[in-house]
Design goal:
Distance between the termini of chain B: 22 Å
Distance between the termini of chain A: 35 Å
Number of helices of chain B: 14
CATH superfamily of chain A: P-loop containing nucleotide triphosphate hydrolases
Largest sheet of chain B: 4 strands, mixed
Strand order of the largest sheet of chain B: 2-1-3-4
Largest sheet of chain A: 6 strands, mixed
CATH architecture of chain A: 3-Layer(aba) Sandwich
Shape of chain B: elongated
Oligomer: heterodimer
Number of strands of chain B: 4
CATH topology of chain A: Rossmann fold
Number of strands of chain A: 10
Helix content of chain B: 55-70%
Shape of chain A: globular
Strand content of chain B: 5-15%
Structural class of chain B: alpha/beta
Order of helices and strands of chain A: EEEHEEHEHHHEHEHEEHH
Helix content of chain A: 25-40%
Strand content of chain A: 25-35%
Largest interface: A-B, 30 and 23 residues
Order of helices and strands of chain B: HHEHEHEEHHHHHHHHHH
Number of helices of chain A: 9
Radius of gyration of chain A: 18 Å
Strand order of the largest sheet of chain A: 6-7-8-3-9-10
Number of domains of chain A: 1
Structural class of chain A: alpha/beta
Radius of gyration of chain B: 27 Å
CATH class of chain A: Alpha Beta
Chain lengths: ~240, ~350
């Protein structure tokens, strides 16, 4: 079952085509890597899928809802974590969880149960009353991810979620994504780090607004006869005409 | 609704965790009122003067006594030449000098004033004139010279009657517009706005939740100002309190809309602060009639002052508070403010949507 389907989805700003007729499907529970150089159109595409921006042409359905007419429904069924840190530093861990639980309309009892479970999973039971600004960056990111899926969305959009941390911390973060994926939550991830690209089930690479390649990492490496994802990415990114 | 409550709760956490800012917001009206009420006084007291008496008779002696007896002046020293007066002015020792001509000269008393501060000089000259008039011999002559003056609404000519409404206009604008715009821009800067916009929370709720705490704080401020001015400065509240508060809420809404509009223009908190400061605070202080009377300004500034919300608010507050007029008397001011609120809401909601 596809949770994201797009068909020739495009976005133009005046004469500039930011996203140029992209078509792809993402299956339930899949971890889908959405790669591209800066300015390739990743963010614009993601904003359309999140219901933040209306496409110029083409079709897309997210969690079964139409991106033109059912943006409010889409928002209820997705989670989102951005590259910039997305929790409130002057609120405690517990208050942040409660806030986002409240925004997504979780009933009080359910929220209390999920909060306990979440803190236990992260090993942060003792940090419930700690201000988020006092946590290390790696912890903040794990917490932000867990909060982004507190309402058990069908899809979670992760916009460069692990910026600024080392590969070991990134690896630990990805364990959370795998766990969510096992529960059936689809992850749609943009990233700059090629080691992360290897963790994805499938990867698409955007160049100049178009999807130039889409396959499993291993298959992409075969096709481009590359030793790792970094070489695949460079081989494609070299074709780019526009920059920024 | 539950979403909205969660979100409002968060706003209050932000405000009360930032104690420094909150204290500043709550104390600002107190400081302004005390400053305007006591420190910055436009009334004149015990100004040093010098007198060159060339007449040396009863009438000149009486005049000097009268000047000294009034609480406006204090005789710094008697002088014997014009040069001496000039020297004292240069050294800043005196504000006013009186030159009384010899009796046989048939000349008039000359008043010299230090006009570097023209307002003060004007006041001093007027006071000196009044003292001289009252020292003229015979009641009949005095009555011929001076007309009868009846000061309406503010018989003691207290400055507080003018600046209390002004401070109310300033504080409401400052807190509602500046703090709201900074609050919203802060979320943009931190990246949390994105997360909120992707959530099912409707943008209008985000805006309302951002504005609500500041609206509350500004109402606390209005209460503080009214209490202070009533019991500390003896400024009466002659009209209806309900009308006064309603007018304040309407004006606060205009200020909130301005803050919202600024938040769609600015990308950083500093920019929001700067825009609020220059675009809102300056006209509120300079063009609202709070400090400088608008009637004496050039045509272009007068028209400009018409779009300053504070001007209409201050006129309304004075009408209700000082003159004790009914709600019907401020229909024009209320209408203008309501119109501003509607136009600004439309404009900023439209811009806010485009920004999505």
């Amino acid at each position: 079952m596809s949770v994201i389907e797009t068909d020739k989805l495009s976005k133009r700003f005046g004469s500039f085509t930011a996203v140029d007729r992209i078509s792809f499907r993402v299956e339930k529970g899949e971890i889908f890597g959405f790669l591209g150089a800066n300015g390739a159109g990743k963010t614009t595409a993601m904003r359309m899928l999140c219901g933040l921006s209306v496409p110029t042409s083409g079709q897309a359905r997210v969690a079964g809802y139409d991106v033109y007419r059912e943006q409010e429904q889409i928002k209820k069924h997705i989670g989102y974590m951005s590259q910039r840190f997305s929790l409130y530093g002057d609120l405690t861990v517990g208050e942040n969880i409660r806030l986002f639980g409240g925004i997504y309309g979780l009933p009080k009892k359910q929220l209390a149960g999920r909060t306990d479970e979440l803190l236990r999973t992260l090993g942060m039971e003792n940090e419930r009353n700690t201000f988020v600004s006092d946590l290390p960056l790696g912890w903040k990111q794990k917490l932000a991810f867990s909060v982004a899926i507190i309402h058990e969305p069908e899809i979670v959009f992760l916009d460069e979620p692990t910026g600024g941390v080392d590969p070991v911390t990134r690896r630990r973060f990805w364990e959370l994504i795998y766990r969510a994926s096992e529960r059936g939550i689809t992850a749609f991830v943009t990233t700059h780090y090629m080691d992360e690209a290897e963790y994805c089930n499938r990867v698409s690479i955007m160049v100049d607004g178009r999807i130039e390649a889409l396959d499993k990492p291993a298959a992409l490496k075969d096709t481009f006869q590359a030793g790792n994802m970094n070489e695949v990415f460079r081989a494609l990114a070299r074709k780019a005409v526009r920059n920024e | 609704m539950k979403q909205f409550v969660s979100f409002i709760r968060k706003e209050f956490y932000h405000i009360f965790r930032d104690m420094r800012t909150t204290l500043m917001l709550l104390l600002m009206p107190v400081i302004l009122i005390i400053l305007f009420g006591f420190a910055i006084s436009t009334e004149i007291r015990r100004s040093p003067i010098a007198v060159w008496d060339q007449r040396h008779d009863d009438s000149s002696g009486k005049l000097i006594n009268q000047l000294q007896a009034s609480e406006y002046f204090e005789l710094y020293q008697m002088i014997n030449s014009r040069e001496e007066a000039g020297e004292l002015f240069r050294r800043g020792k005196i504000r006013l000098a009186l030159i009384i001509p010899p009796a046989q000269a048939d000349a008039r008393v000359q008043i010299l004033a230090d006009a570097t501060d023209p307002n003060e000089a004007n006041l001093l000259i007027r006071y000196a004139g009044a003292v001289m008039t009252s020292s003229l011999p015979g009641p009949s002559l005095r009555e011929e010279v001076s007309g009868e003056v009846l000061l309406l609404y503010n018989p003691q000519m207290k400055g507080a009657y003018n600046f209390v409404p002004g401070v109310m206009g300033l504080i409401l604008m400052l807190i509602c517009a500046m703090m709201t715009s900074v609050g919203i821009v802060k979320e943009k800067e931190l990246g949390t706005m994105e997360v909120l916009l992707v959530s099912p929370l409707r943008p209008v709720y985000i805006i309302l939740a951002k504005a609500a705490p500041y609206l509350l704080i500004s109402m606390v401020n209005i209460a503080t100002i009214l209490l202070l001015s009533r019991f500390l400065l003896d400024v009466p509240i002659r009209g209806s309190l309900v009308v006064l508060v309603s007018l304040s809420v309407l004006y606060a809404l205009v200020a909130l809309c301005l803050g919202l509009l600024i938040s769609t223009l600015a990308d950083t908190q500093q920019a929001a602060m700067l825009i609020s400061g220059v675009v809102l605070m300056l006209p509120t202080v300079l063009l609202s009639g709070m400090v400088f009377p608008v009637e004496n300004m050039p045509w272009i500034l007068r028209r400009l002052s018409d779009i300053v919300p504070a001007k209409w608010y201050i006129i309304g507050v004075k009408d209700v508070m000082i003159k004790g007029l009914e709600a019907g008397a401020i229909l024009r001011e209320t209408g203008i403010l309501a119109l501003m609120a509607i136009v600004l809401t439309g404009l900023s909601v439209k811009r806010f949507k485009i920004r999505l």
